[in-house]
Amino acid sequence: DWNKRIEYKPGSGSIPLFPSIHLETCDGPVSSIHTTIELQNNYIGKGCDRETYSEKSLQKLCGASSGAIDLLPSPSATTNWTAGLLMDNNDMIFKFDGKQGAKIPDGIVPKNLTDQFTISLWMKHGPSPGLRAEKETILCNSDKTEMNRHHYALYVHNCRLVFLLRKDFDQADTFRPAEFHWKLDQICDKEWHYYVVNVEFPVVTLYMDGTTYEPYLVTNDWPIHPSHIAMQLTVGACWQGGEVTKPRFAQYFHGSLASLTIRPGKIESQKVISCLQACKEGLDINSLESLGQGIKYHFNPSQSVLVMEGDDIENINQALRKVSYINSRQFPTAGVRRLKVSSKVQCFGEDVCISIPDIDAYVMVFQANEPKITISGMDHFARPAAQFERGVILLPDIRIVSTVTKMEHPVDSKEHDRGLFKPVVLEEMLHNLDFCDILVIGTELDPEQECLELDHVELQGKHLDATNSTAGYSIYGVDSMHNYEQVLRQIRYRNWYTSATFDRKFRVKCSELNGRYTSNEFNLEVNILHSSNSNTMDHVNHMIVQPQFLQSVHQPEGSISAVHNSVVPSVATIVIIICVSILIFIITLGVYRIRTAHQHSSGDTEGSKENEMDWDDSALTITVNPMEKYEKPHQTEEESEEEDIEDEEEDDTTSAESDESEEEEEEEEEAEVIVQKGNKQNATRQEQLEWD
């Protein structure tokens, strides 16, 4: 009764692998049962699912001593010596194919490492090709020119790990231990292992996956003669500066390296080493106290293998049901983890009486919901130049919030059958951050006149550290978003020579899991107000930043200056008054011209009306004297038509006047008809005309 596929959702804690499993022997008596459960996860990350924070952040989280120097950092503007190496971005793994090496710039690692220092690294290495393989250099410090002396080095030779340390004559003048050899099968098993070399001269100790190993061979040598030749520190190969026509790399490494660090002046404790290499996933047993009597069990250091032994079948069945898988990472690496269960049964008086087939199953770890990290706050402000000389807080109200979107299963069974899922944005999700950078946009800071500052008291009690440069300020370490907010709110920008600077732009960006999840890029602009324009911007600045007028109530001098600033008119106010005055003048001029045009139009209308009255008089003349010739009224008609044409050509004639002229033309036509009929009806003409 076991399932081949076991599903694991992030944040589920410990889940049983085989809650109903049992062994059936058909009532055959057995004397002992030996069962091995193996979690095969060596292909996940560096041997198992570990935290993928940077080495600096992990060391801070595990309580390691400060001062570790990362020799294989991610490529950036300040750490560009790894830019040409083959790299797996997800896990910060660098792959060396026997053709590449990296030079560490001078000044990164001090020349004198003292008698105590620590070298730590992750390494994945296979058998070397050939019968007599060359040395494969992991880390080497040799002469840069003229000679080919190796001062200290860590390398692999014929599946042996060798550490070389040559003292100078000024430090020792006798035959001293110089080479330390370890022979381990894990060096060439093509699996990831964590190595720590603790040097406490003349004693050197190796920790491999948290277990201590003493060197099987130590060879002595004379100290190196002093010289003024510069040294070159390299990774992945050794620099050969002498004995060749042209200096070059030699003794290349074949394999993968990660998290290579060196810590001068201090050695690391076994507790910290165990923390740094600990797996975050493995096998577990729920409620050990109820495991049952007569059950023996044993875990390997990484908890990937569990061995159980007992003499009672029922007790073994109960114990197997309590075996579980656990992954303590908030954002685990998704994928398959294979499981293999093998058992052996012994009967009374026999070695092996029953053959039990192996169980092959797997755990399917689901992808965690991706968080969305958002940085918000005041993105622009201005201050007088005098305040920047003392220092101005850049991010007084910065806020870092993370949300996550989940697919919620529908309640309705019909919707479930159709596969409908509704995305729901959850409330704030709490998780850690591992670094926040404040980058300078544009030209870098001039250390002669400006800088970013942070009181390191703010870092006390937190798993945080900080580095400062002309390119910006970096805060790193695995800690909560709240602690990051508190520290970011205390960073100040100082500029004690502000006459040449008017503004500065910054960009804030935060990360979780060494860049696996990144926030938005929050841009901030800061304006420096000089004496010429400080009064102009005072009012706007107070609205944007803080009510300084309220503060000036308790400071009489400040209140006087505030009143003075409010009385002095600004340039913007004067410009507005001038614009309003010009607008009033234009409106007045327009009204005047409209009224003038209206009066002129009224005069033209009265003139046209007088012409109409004259025309009416001529028409009456035709009516009263019917005995005149036909030509006279015809002439009068032409005159009236000319007058009509003139009236029509007048610009100011209205449509009403045009209608009146048409009516008058009709009256003339009627008069003509009356005149033509006058010879026939003289007795009635007078009556008709009077009626008209």
From TrEMBL:
<dbReference type="GO" id="GO:0007155">
    <property type="term" value="P:cell adhesion"/>
</dbReference>
<feature type="domain" description="Calsyntenin C-terminal">
    <location>
        <begin position="289"/>
        <end position="631"/>
    </location>
</feature>
<dbReference type="InterPro" id="IPR045588">
    <property type="entry name" value="CLSTN_C"/>
</dbReference>
<dbReference type="GO" id="GO:0009986">
    <property type="term" value="C:cell surface"/>
</dbReference>
<keyword id="KW-0472">Membrane</keyword>
<keyword id="KW-0130">Cell adhesion</keyword>
<dbReference type="GO" id="GO:0012505">
    <property type="term" value="C:endomembrane system"/>
</dbReference>
<keyword id="KW-1133">Transmembrane helix</keyword>
<feature type="transmembrane region" description="Helical">
    <location>
        <begin position="571"/>
        <end position="592"/>
    </location>
</feature>
<protein>
    <submittedName>
        <fullName>CSTN2 protein</fullName>
    </submittedName>
</protein>
<keyword id="KW-0732">Signal</keyword>
<keyword id="KW-0106">Calcium</keyword>
<dbReference type="GO" id="GO:0045211">
    <property type="term" value="C:postsynaptic membrane"/>
</dbReference>
<dbReference type="InterPro" id="IPR013320">
    <property type="entry name" value="ConA-like_dom_sf"/>
</dbReference>
<feature type="region of interest" description="Disordered">
    <location>
        <begin position="625"/>
        <end position="692"/>
    </location>
</feature>
<dbReference type="Pfam" id="PF19699">
    <property type="entry name" value="CLSTN_C"/>
</dbReference>
<dbReference type="GO" id="GO:0050806">
    <property type="term" value="P:positive regulation of synaptic transmission"/>
</dbReference>
<feature type="compositionally biased region" description="Acidic residues">
    <location>
        <begin position="638"/>
        <end position="672"/>
    </location>
</feature>
<feature type="compositionally biased region" description="Basic and acidic residues">
    <location>
        <begin position="628"/>
        <end position="637"/>
    </location>
</feature>
<keyword id="KW-0812">Transmembrane</keyword>
<keyword id="KW-0677">Repeat</keyword>
<dbReference type="GO" id="GO:0030425">
    <property type="term" value="C:dendrite"/>
</dbReference>
<keyword id="KW-0966">Cell projection</keyword>
<dbReference type="GO" id="GO:0051965">
    <property type="term" value="P:positive regulation of synapse assembly"/>
</dbReference>
<keyword id="KW-0325">Glycoprotein</keyword>
